[in-house]
Amino acid sequence: MGDVIISKYGGSSITSHTDIERIKRITYDNPRRKIIVVSAPGKRDNDDVKVTDMLIKLARTKDSDLFDRILNRYKIVFPDENLEDITAMLDRRLNQNLEGKNDADRESPYKDGIAAFGEEACARLLAKYLGAEYVDSRELFMVTNDFGNAIILPCSEKMITKRLNKTNSLYVVPGFYGCTENGLTAIFGRNKSDLTGAYVAYSLDAMLYEIFSDKEGVLASDPDIVKDPVKIDKITFEEMRDLAYSGFNIFHPEAMGPVAKKKIPVHIRETAKYPAEGTYVVHERVSDLNKPIVGIAYQNGFCAFNIWAFGLNDRVGIAYDILGIFKERNISMEFMPGVIDDISVVLKRNQLKNHSIENIIAEIHSLNDEGIEINFQDDLGCIVVAGIGLKNRKVSSANIQRTIESSGVDIEFISRGSKKRCIVYGVNHSDGRKAVNAVYNKYIRSKTHV
Ligand code: ASP
């Protein structure tokens, strides 16, 4: 099956009949497009509600008006199809008794079964419309019984290769869910239908995984921060991981694992602009010497414990002891920048919601009898500058630092990985926008930057 293309359509590409006609045209445009994976109908505009959200609410309220509005969304997309079967299916699912597991307020098989209806109904109707074979994801994915957050079990690979084995068939598969060993439906988690396509691509050794959405591709920075950022033509899996902070979440990060492992290229593209090319995510690429930086991501909501003590550097296991204080509280660390006697622990601020900062500081103090200076810094933002071109020294960390500082922004910390393709600059969140724009203008927008 190695020469197949897996095409996944996000919810924003399945909101009208025109969308479905477009999917048909795209599918038949290339005979290698053999497997179509779909989400549930998504938002038509910013004020709209995704069908999956409507379903989750329906599980709780069982409101008949909402029931009708959900079915109406399918009627709009598939006006010529008979909806009797899917109406009966939703009704059955809503009224099924799962022996004590009918909890709609918490993650449960009942709630997952109803949430999964969104993609299932969509895939059934699309298969009919395209004259393709519908394949239920329960036949392809064996998952753990972590409802709301199920993990794909390795045996799924064999299930997929066995079930999707006809070379001249066109299959339509619903994204987002699988089947537990007890035969119950469990979803992977919100926005994770990308994972279905990625795992199918992995199992079949596909030649390409296409992700169709309403976005033209991956942009070099967050358009809410930078005006009209350029689209990236090619980016590696590692660079995408480095840029996994806000603005780069167009492709679910968990879906990257399976395709990256088999070096299957991913093409992120816009359905409405087909055949215009979007962004290719690939295993390797050659970096343009004049464009060493591929993207700049930014996220706020960080804080830091800055720790200093004379001779800290010589104390064996001090970093271990400090991190142990966070580990005990189940708090994960984001970066640990530092120099000789000075280390910082940078973390996501929301993890401290249920913890006393004073207690953490007191515990760090207790690690050293000779005194430790600790200062807690809030409201930090992280600028991630990434690109394999950063290895070739034409742009050094110091150049970027100078660019940020010349814009009048103080850098609070710098963290750089050993692979040298990604540098993180910590700044006060109030300076974040200014700093990102300074780096973007100099290294991406400008033609004569290096
Ligand atoms: N429809 C699901 C959600 O809204 C899955 C997805 O769209 O990826 O979370």
Helix count equals 13
What is the makeup of the main sheet?
A: 8 strands, mixed
Question: Under the CATH scheme, which class of the largest domain?
Answer: Alpha Beta
Strand proportion = 15-25%
Helical fraction equals: 25-40%
The hetero molecules present are: aspartic acid
Please name the CATH topology of the largest domain: Carbamate kinase
Rg, alpha carbons: 25 Å
Encode the helix/strand succession as letters. Answer: EHEHHHHEHEEEHEEHHEEEHEEHEHEEH
Structural class: alpha/beta
Quantity of strands, as a count? 16
Sum up the structure in keywords.
single chain; alpha/beta; Carbamate kinase; VC0802-like; 8-stranded mixed sheet; 16 strands; binds aspartic acid
Overview of the structural elements:
This protein is of the alpha/beta class and 450 residues long. It folds into two domains: 5-214, Acetylglutamate kinase-like (Carbamate kinase), CATH 3.40.1160; 295-445, VC0802-like (2-Layer Sandwich), CATH 3.30.2130.10. The chain is 34% helix and 20% strand. It has helices at residues 17-29, 51-61, 64-77, 84-95, 109-130, 156-163, 193-204, 237-242, 253-261, 318-328, 357-365, 397-406, 429-445, and strands at 5-9, 33-38, 133-134, 171-174, 177-179, 185-187, 208-213, 234-236, 266-270, 279-282, 295-308, 338-339, 342-348, 373-386, 413-416, 422-428. Strands 3-4-2-1-7-9-10-8 form an eight-stranded mixed sheet, with helices on both faces. Helix 1 links the parallel strand 1 (5-9) and strand 2 (33-38). Helix 2 runs antiparallel to helix 3 and helix 7 runs parallel beside helix 9. The mean pLDDT is 93. Aspartic acid (ASP) binds at residues 11, 39-40, 50, 52, 118, 175-176, 190-193.
